[in-house]
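quick one, 93 residues, struct below
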Amino acid sequence: MKTEVYSYRLTRGRKAKLEHAARHRKVKIAQVLDMALDEWFSKHEREIASDEEQKRLHAIAQRIIGVSKGNDPNRSANVSKRMRENLGRQYGR
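---
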């Protein structure tokens, strides 16, 4: 059962193509959109899963390595030094 609403703006040309496809197939516009989305998701399933896997791996790496935070505009230039200091404090070196 569909319970969510999504609003989307499109060009006149794309709207006309969408309406034409629905009339041609004798289905509602929502069904044409569902078919298009299902096809897109099946084609891009690996990419979507890969994005989720990357997020998972980043979260693990952050817990293991740590995260450098702050308002220092030169943070990227000093990251090696700061990571050594952080690791030294963490592991007593």
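The longest helix spans residues 45-65.
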